[in-house]
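Final report, results section. Input specification for complex C-07:
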Amino acid sequence: MERNIKLFEEFQQALLEVNRIKAAEIFDEYYNINQSFEELEQLTMKALEVIGDGWEEGQLSLSQVYMSGVICEGLIEKYLPDHLVTNGAELKIAIGVLQDHHSLGKRIVYSILSSSGYHLIDFGQGLSVDEIVEKTINENIDILLISTLMLPSALKVKQVVEMIKKKGSPAKVIVGGAPFRLDKELWRRVNADADGKNGIEVQKIIKRFSEGGKQS
Amino acid sequence: MNSMERVMTAITHKEPDRVPMFHLFSHYGAKELGINIKNYFSDSKNVVEAQLRMQKKYSNDCIYTFTYAPIEIEAFGGEVVFTEDGPPNSGQPFIKNIEQIKDIDVPLIGESQQLKRVLETTQALKESVGDKVPIIGVVMSPFSLPVMQMGFEKYLELLYFRKDEFDFLMKINQEFCVAWANAQLEAGATAICYFDPLASPAIIERSKYIETGHIIAKETISRFNGATATHLASGISLPVIDDIISTGSAVLGFSEEDNIKEIKEKAKGKICLLGNLNGIEMANWDKKTAQNKVKQLIQGAARGGGFILSDNHGEIPWQVSESTLLDIAETVKEYGTYPIREEA
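Structure output:
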């Protein structure tokens, strides 16, 4: 147990230093001790949660959050077969960037959800309202994650929500990105179902939605 | 005092007649003229007319020749995507892989129609306002530009793992940045706003910034033939304020998320603060909210000078109403007259 705690701290430090090799060594050692995929998943999720919280509190940088997510995603992929989806297998989840080509936020959420065993369909970036709606309908998406960078794109989420509802889709829409961070009530005004402040928060919201709950 | 006197007094950490106010209008000028954004930027006469009109209308203490961030990407041969209700954005990154970097040349200012148009705009505005209103030109920092050149993810890969290619790209960007800043100063800009969002520890951790972006900022800014303001485009700046002071910047654009009391103390006598109204929330402010926000900010940051009231991103969003901008301007006039009164 003590060794696990120490390894967790070292793993977190390796992620913050963007030290892929060190992180992989610790990951291997952790697996050798615990012999469990679930424990590995817990290790990465706990580390990413602490790092995400550090960013929310202004202690860590977005680049550290991103690089940590990418490193963890790679490590998890190494240990888990591609087809093995351990979470949310009953849900079809998609993610896309509305209107612009800045995809860092999408990539962070994608990495964190992949690291925790979710399978996501990547709709890409630079999507128009029509494109994201069409893809959501055609793919029978249950949960749509929309990332935005600028206010005009964030405001267009309202049209997306209206159009997918009009077309009879029950998809829940979770939004994220700078405009929603800067205006805490914006997600409500665009009629999104939830505000995904970071990857870990998105994961919790998905879990809540899959259990029939909603964001208050 | 005219705007230039007011701003110069504030920058030298003294109290002018009232708090200077910068409404940083870029694509908002198209709204003023009632034309679409792409047309607006296609002719320097539009920008000149809108800037002069808006300067008077809002009692604005600056002229802002900033068009849109990816104008520099256009000079590199990259793509810009125009929208009807927001800032033009960079399209697909033109650096598709890191190996491409060694083949990039420094763009020549005189070969870019878009940059030449900004210089024409600056010259015409300078002829019109002379030394009465400061004209603020804009450059993207060499350290932050790659987000648009190659996309954020690829750039982080470059920053953390590909030092040689990173250094090469920084040299290219630095040469371009210095040439672009000095061309604007020569055309009549009073000062250059050096946009460096990646300097914020919210984006890149300070330790990495110190060994990369900070050195680049010091080298680059020292080669500008005029004064510089550094702006982190709504990223927190308090943890790096001393670093930014050491780059030689006279002004710092700070964030709504920075603690005003602490940042004011740290900036005292060293760097003039510019900020920090939340431009995104501003789109939904009513008169009372606008007044309260401005009054609070003046109370917290204006005493002793060293302060210019502005938004915290460096650009007024299209969605902000004219009445809100007028409310802000009126409140600055009413409550921002020095000496600042204590508010209950």
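The two ends of chain A are 37 Å apart (CA to CA). The interface with chain B takes residues 16, 18, 55, 58, 60-64, 66-67, 99-104, 107, 126, 149-153, 155, 178-179, 182-183, 186, 189 of chain A (CB under 8 Å). This concludes the modelling results for the funded period.
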